[in-house]
Specification:
The protein is of the alpha+beta class. It contains 18 helices and 31 strands.
Length: about 650
């Protein structure tokens, strides 16, 4: 079973009040690893030195991260293999893929190796070799997928601090942002254009803000692959989870009016609010609704599979009542869309208590946020957004090249829209960013919201990585010596982000109409910082590597997949399956094509043979490509098993 770069991104580039947060305590000191490098220990994990290796063990006991020194080896892949032999003698796993991303943070070379596992193992195995001179510092990650997913931010926090001796990270602290002159803007737009070509992104909406004004806004590319309609500053894109910060802005206006207090129990405002744990329910204050710090895991599969236009907004609260925490309150970052959805709906309810919660939220956002900010093309109404100038979604399917993705799957966000259902434009998002820089003061000098309650959304609730935190629908990174605030958005065929740097009055917006746009977000941020602060030139190398490594990973990921499916495997499927939470899954055949049909949409399916002798159904339609369902049998009935990071869902054949 292929799993690529689950942890490497952390290295290379979710009955009492909330306890004292990590960032409020004294910063932990770095320790020696025994390899010439230093690291800030993984917070909350036990650590020990074992045979010269520094080993961290998760509280659950089923995941570990080891730092192993290796010398006398000529290449990174062999160094990883030697480290495994030292850490786990007899380790014998086939390498799925080994790649060398650009060396950063003082390292001369970096190699990332991922390993074959079978679905039933629910296991993460990864090795990262970091070379400095002739010495390798090798990081080995081994553990239960659920624990690695739950504690991924802790790993990122620690291993983002791993560095060679005497290395000083590049910092922009104390530097003034350079003016975004026409020449510098052209440098940025030229870079984005080349990235779009390499990453196969049909269209981009882009805006740059500096000096309390929009200095550039417009579009690059087209609204549809092969189309002639150009993207401009008024082209509508789904901006997905960027909605979260807008919803918390609504809560800020209510805090100004005294309709809520940040430290007030949610159940006092909305008695129907319930979580799977009574203790956690009682602990949740208003400020915790979108802090990703309550211990509730990500739980998206219900609405990804079992949502229709008729699904009521109140389903958010039904699902939350069945969701239990998997970590301690305030312990780790765990991203939960349902909590964000509840936050927005509760805010709308406080404004219009006699309306249905979805309609109340939509109206409150229009009247309190979008209209005052003159975000005239920002809406939750799909029909309005797609009536004129709008970007169509794109993604890769099995074939590889980017193509149109089905739009109907994105309807799944409608019932949970405060978490990510808004449509917007580069122009409107620039106005939203300007509001952040102005701390709630409108262009005419009046206040949309007080600075105090706007800034509350930037409070550092829980670490998401090294010198990075999650607030209320906003993220912050201080790694480069500047406090950079941002948030991304991801739905099928749409990837986006916006950034603002209050110290220098700069902001940027990037909207894309392809899943491959995800790769552009980090590339763009680096390029923007280089232009603003005369940074070391890394963006060009990053782009070339992203294109090359991405192509390698895609080719490897398709190796074992039969696009139209193994005929014998498909013939043994039941015609209809059902899961209590995820609804029905119907197998339909059309000529030589087989389709999986669920409440939210349909996808063509192929098959893949797993290492343990089982087979998986693989969705191959663009936007859904790669989602596996393991074929099996339980209690005499045929089943399809879907596993996300912390859950297992079993579709059982329906009685005829």
């Amino acid at each position: 079973m292929k799993r690529f770069a689950l942890v490497a991104s952390a290295l290379l580039l979710s009955a009492s009040p909330l306890p004292v947060l990590a960032q409020e305590a004294a910063a932990p000191e770095a320790v020696a690893t025994g390899t010439g490098a230093t690291i800030v220990p993984v917070p909350g994990w036990a650590s020990e030195t074992r045979d010269g290796m520094l080993v961290f063990t998760a509280p659950e006991g089923d995941a570990s991260a080891a730092i192993v020194g290796i010398s006398g080896i000529d290449n990174g892949a062999d160094a990883v293999a030697a480290a495994w032999e030292k850490f786990a003698p007899g380790f014998d796993r086939e390498v799925s893929i080994s790649q060398e991303p650009p060396a950063r943070d003082g390292w001369d070379n970096i190699t990332v190796s991922n390993y074959e596992t079978s679905p039933a193992e629910k296991l993460v195995l990864q090795g990262i070799a970091l070379r400095k001179g002739d010495q390798y510092t090798v990081v080995l990650i081994r553990g239960a997928m659920a624990t690695i997913a739950k504690r991924g931010a802790q790993l990122g926090q620690a291993f983002g601090s791993l560095k060679p001796a005497d290395f000083e990270r590049e910092t922009f602290a104390g530097r003034e942002a350079r003016e975004l002159t026409p020449a510098r803007i052209a440098e940025i737009t030229d870079y984005v254009t080349r990235a779009m070509e390499g990453l196969e992104i049909p269209g981009v909406g882009l805006a740059l803000v500096q000096g309390d004004r929009i200095v550039w806004e417009g579009g690059l590319g087209t609204t549809e692959l092969g189309g002639s309609e150009k993207v401009d500053e008024d082209t509508s894109f789904m901006v997905a989870s960027n909605t979260k910060g807008m919803a918390t802005l609504l809560l800020s206006t209510l805090a100004d009016e005294g309709k809520l207090k940040w430290d007030q129990k949610v159940t006092e405002l909305y008695p129907e609010f319930r979580l799977g744990s009574a203790e956690t329910t009682d602990s949740v204050l208003v400020e915790h609704l979108i802090c990703a710090c309550t211990g509730l895991p990500r739980k998206d599969m219900q609405w990804v599979f079992n949502t229709s236009a008729e699904t009521p907004a109140s389903d958010t609260f039904v699902q939350l009542a069945a969701t239990e925490p998997t970590s301690g309150f305030g312990e780790v970052f765990q991203y939960n869309n349902l909590m964000a959805s509840a936050a927005g709906y509760i805010g709308g309810h406080l404004v219009y208590p006699d309306m249905e919660v979805g309609a109340a939220f939509d109206r409150a956002m229009d009247e309190r946020i979008f209209d005052p900010l003159e975000m005239n093309r920002t809406t939750f109404d799909f029909s309005e957004a797609t009536a004129g100038n709008w970007a169509r979604p794109h993604a890769r399917g099995y074939a590889g090249p980017v193509e149109r993705a089905p739009m109907d799957w994105n309807n799944m966000i409608v019932p949970y829209r405060p978490a990510g259902g808004v449509w917007s434009t580069a122009h409107d998002m620039a106005l939203y960013a300007l509001n952040e820089l102005r701390e709630g003061t409108l262009a005419d000098g009046t206040d949309l919201v007080s600075a105090e309650n706007l800034l509350k959304r930037r409070q550092r609730y829980v670490p998401i990585g090294d010198e990075s935190w999650y607030g209320m629908g906003l993220m912050e990174s201080a790694r480069m010596g500047k406090n950079i605030y941002f948030h991304g958005g991801s739905l099928i065929g749409y990837k986006s982000n916006f950034w603002f740097i209050p110290e220098d009055g700069v902001a940027a917006v990037l909207l894309t109409n392809s899943d491959t746009g995800q790769g552009l977000l980090g590339l763009f941020q680096r390029k923007l910082l280089e232009v603003l602060y005369d940074g070391t030139e890394e963006a060009e190398e990053n782009l070339a590597a992203s294109i090359k490594l991405g192509a390698e990973a895609r080719a490897k990921g398709r190796e074992d997949i039969i696009e139209r499916g193994d005929a014998e495997v498909l013939a043994a499927l039941a015609p209809r399956y059902v899961n209590e939470d995820l609804g029905p899954l119907v197998i339909e055949r059309d000529g030589d094509a087989t389709w999986g049909v669920v409440t939210s949409g349909r996808s063509m399916i192929g098959t893949m043979a797993n290492d343990d002798g089982t087979h998986s159904l693989i969705m191959t339609t663009p936007g859904m490509f790669g989602l596996p369902l393991v074929i099996g049998e339980r209690e005499g009935k045929r089943v399809l098993i879907l596993m996300d990071a912390q859950h297992e869902y079993v579709f059982t054949e329906a009685d005829s």
